Structure formats: C-alpha cells, structure tokens
Please model this.
Amino acid sequence: MKNILITTSIIVLTLLSACSNNTESPTDQNLIIDLEIKNMKLIPEIINVVEKSNLTLNIESDTNGSLHFHGYNIEFKISKDIINTLDITVNATGSFPIALHYSEKSDGHTNHNHDSNSKQAHNHGSHDDGDHGESVIGKLIVNPK
Amino acid sequence: MNKLILSIIFTIFTTWIIIPNKIYAHGFGERYDLPIPLEYFLIGGSLTIILSFVILVLFTNNSININHNQSRSILYPNNMNNIVIMILTNILKIFSVFLFLLAIISGFIGSDNPIENFSAPFIWIVWWVGFGILTPIIGDFWKALNPIKIIYIFLVNNVLKNPEMINKGKYTYPKSLDSWPLIISFLLFAWFENVGNGSNPFNLSILITIYSSASFVLMYLYGAKTWLERGDVFSVYYHIMGSFGIFKLTQNKYLRTTNVQIRFPVVGLTELKTPSVLFVMFHIILLGTISFDGLSETKFWSDIELLFIPVLGKATTETIGIIIIPAIFYILLWLVCKIVAMITLEKSTEEILTSFVFSLTPIAIAYHIAHYLSYILITGQLIIPVISDPFGYGWDLIGTKNYSLNIGVINAKNAWYSSIIIIVLGHVFSVIVSHINAIKIFSTNKLAIKSQIPFLILMIFYTALSLWIIAQPIINH
Model:
C-alpha cells in the first residue's frame, strides 16, 4: 500500500508540474478580427481571445440590424454591404453569446461607446422578451491569461 | 381526510403545470462560465482518487470518533432572552416577512419581464441559489427565517392566542404519509424550475401563494413543528444542507430558538438519521436534481433533446430527465448497498441504505457551490437594480436602478481553482462521513473498512460526474 501511495504521488506531482507549464499566452494584445454575417450565421462563429485584449472587429453583413454582445452588454448597429468597425476591450473572462437583432427599427439601438461594460442595464436576460427578434449566431470566448 | 387534502393540492399543482405555457428552461438568468480545462479536470480526478485511498489507509489503522459534545454553545437559552438578541432576532424576522411579501406582490403587480421584477432574481438567485450555498456553510438558519413559519407562529400566538397549535395539530401525522409530501413537492418544484415557466414573475407569485396557503393548512392539521420537520420540503431540504454547516440552531417545541452551537462541519451530517427508505428516495431525488440542473446545460443533454424532442416534445423530454436521473442515482446506490450487505453479512440492504444515504451529501453540496459560484457572483448582481425598482415601474428608490453588472467580478481561472478545490473537499468529507456511518453500524473496524470499498467507487463516480459536468461548455437555453 505504501508503495502504491508513493508511486501515485509521483504520478500526480508529475501531472501537476506538467499542467503548470501554461500554454503560451499570445503576446499580441491588439487584435484585428474580420467577421462576416451571412444568412444569419457568423463567420467565424467563435471569437477566441485572451483577457485584456483590444479587439477591432471589422464586420461585413448581408443584413441590417444590430449585434448584441451578451454579458458585455454592447449593442452595435450594423449596416449591410459596408465594413462596420467596432472596438472592444475585453476585460472579463467567460463565454458570451453574440446575438443578431434583426429588427429594422431605427430607434433605441444606437452604437454604444466601445467600453467593455455598458452603463445601461439591458432587458434581454436569457430569453426572447418579444420586443425584437434575437438570434444567437456566435460566441465571444475570453480566456484568462 | 388527509389523503383528500393532499390529492387536492397535488391536482391543483399538476393541472396548472400541465396547461400549455411558453417554456422557459432552468430557473432564471444567463451564464457565462467557461468550462474547466482538461488539465484541471485531470488534476481534480487524480486528487479525488489519491485522497480516497489515503483516507482509507488512515482509517484502516485509526478510526475517527466524532464526539458530539465537541459542539460549543455560543448563544445559550438565557442569552436568547437578552433584549438585544431579541430585538435583532425580531428585526431579522420582520425583514424576512417583508421580502417574502414583496416578492409575492411584485410578481402580481409588477413588470412581467423577470429582469425588471424583484420577484424572479430574489426567489431564484438570492433565495434558491444563495441560501443553497450559504446554508451548508453557516447552518440551517432557514429554521429561524422561514417567513411562512414566522407568520403562522405570529398568528397562532397573537391572534388565535393558542401556542399549543404550534406543537399539536388537529390530527396526528399519519405513518402512511411518510415522505411522500417531500417527494411530490420536490419533484414538482424541480419541474417548475427546470421545465416550467419558472422565471415568469406572475406565475412565481401564484406558486408561492398556493404553497404558502397549503403550508398554513397543513401546519394547522398536523402541528407546525411536525409538518415542518416531516412534510415541508424546503424546511427538510435546508435542514439537510444546514447539517453540514458550522452553526447548529436548536428550537423548542414552540419553535423558538433556544440554543446556537458552533461545531466542526462534518458533525451535523453524522447526526442525521432516517428509518425510512422513502426518505432515502427523497434525498436521492434531491441529489439527482442538483446534478440534472448542471447536466441539462451540457451539449450531452442538448444532443439527447435533439433525439427525443421531435417525438416527445420539449416539456416531456425534460420531465423525463428530471425523473430518470434521480432514478439512476437511486438504482446505483441501491446496488452498492446490496453489494455491501452481501460482503459484510451483518446488515440488510435497507439498513445500509438508510444509514449511508447522507454520505453522498457533501459531494452534492460541493458540486452545487462550485456550479453556482460564478452565477451567484455575476447574475446575483441583478438584485441590485431591482431593489430600487421592485415592480419595474421606473422608480429609483435607493439610487441603484441603473447599476450594470460587473461581469469581471470573478476571473475564470479563480473560478476553476475554487471549483476543483471545493469538489475535491466535498469528496473528502463524503469519504469521512461514510466511514463514520460505517463505524456506527458495523460491529468491527474490519467490516466497516470492507463496507467502504463499494461506497468509495460510487463516490469517485459521483465526484467524477460533478467534475465532468463543470468541464462541459454551458449551453444557454
């Protein structure tokens, strides 16, 4: 039993030290990412970045509407057939749905200032609240350093 | 008479739930957790296995004796009559009743948007998740703060002026009822949370009103003390969870707190007893639904839904999930107890079932805390704006209406470390509680150790399941 314990402890210590060699964090904190919205799909679907990155998102869309970054509570109006540019600093880690609001209404949804935490509480929560159509088309994944 | 009353209550619940409604899954609120990476999962799993064997080896040579006299009183009966303590206690009780009534009223007259209404964040996040996390740490303080109980006792003492109604009901609690009220109530509640329209404030208020009314009637029929100890699902739930906590509240037959003791976390769980296999089933339903809560947010469950929803519909599929997961848990536990009965030849399967059921509780508690830690810290902040505007009318009573959530309050890495440590600790406590229970019921240390091998395998499986669930990406429904 003693031998089993010693052997197992060596294995675990090896595991622990292997895991402590983190995968390299990207050194580039400023990222430019090109996105396309086509047929209600985001290409690429997942944006995978590291916290404290400054993102410049160049978004081309085949539809008018607005992109809503859940969690960060950023709503960004997009126009079709032009390059829409959004700057975000991602300070909080997590997996944040990106939704497309495809209402054609011209009210209410203006470009917010590009802060990572919007000042305005947003009404959507986790459900379609019936005020406008929302379809989750992608994810912003912000990993810890 | 008793069966008629229960049948009526059950029918009201099920009829209302079966009426087609827009289905909202899973309580309330969006989640942004990142799944734990593979290396953390492996470390957690490895530690679970290693520590299990280490503890088993230690127990082989030395058994643990829990001395229940090691609990120490911090508030004695005399202290409870102290004017300052009485004032503080009454302030807390009044506050509890105020929040309870506010939750009901806001559901009835406030906005039907759950984020703009006090009711949904308070019930689902502060009470169900928040209390669920605090109770295993602190102890069963729901005993002192239960607003339905507070209102009933107030009415009995001050309006009806008959305090004996607290201790004695119109009828004796029938043996045949056993733990059926707990099982039925909890399944219905779990359904409402996971499948039904749980986040809609109006529906929530209706449910609370029905539940409260039924509680008053049943406390009158069987005596408040008896009903709360044997039939009221939330009192029993928080009592089990609170048994892990460091404070123990003792109440007299008039449900007045007479003593507050401080103790080592494991002690309370080892004091829990049940002679009833039905209670074991209730407890396993509780543990199973805690796991289903997390499982239902994984891709694994999403894939199952894709298979069955076209045939059975979403509500039926999820309802089956709520029943089938606890059923699997129960079958596994029963099999393990059967094996233990066969290898020890000293106790029956039922005796082992009723003696060991609480051994799994620390794993469930640990998983619950790990699973909801980020949720309570991030989505829990939703309570801040609604305090200023409980009905969603555009008020700003204390200046917090425009508060926006700080989603960076907990970093993913800290959440991962915390989750692994909490789940592994939960496993360690489970192994300890199981060993203590074994020492109590088996005649020799050798038999007790022998009985632990099958339980250890079960506990490793349960812990591994908990780790696996938090390693899965969350699918927000």
Q: What stands out?
A: DSSP finds one helix and nine strands in chain A. Residues 75 and 144 of chain A are 24 Å apart (CA to CA). Chain A has a mean pLDDT of 73.
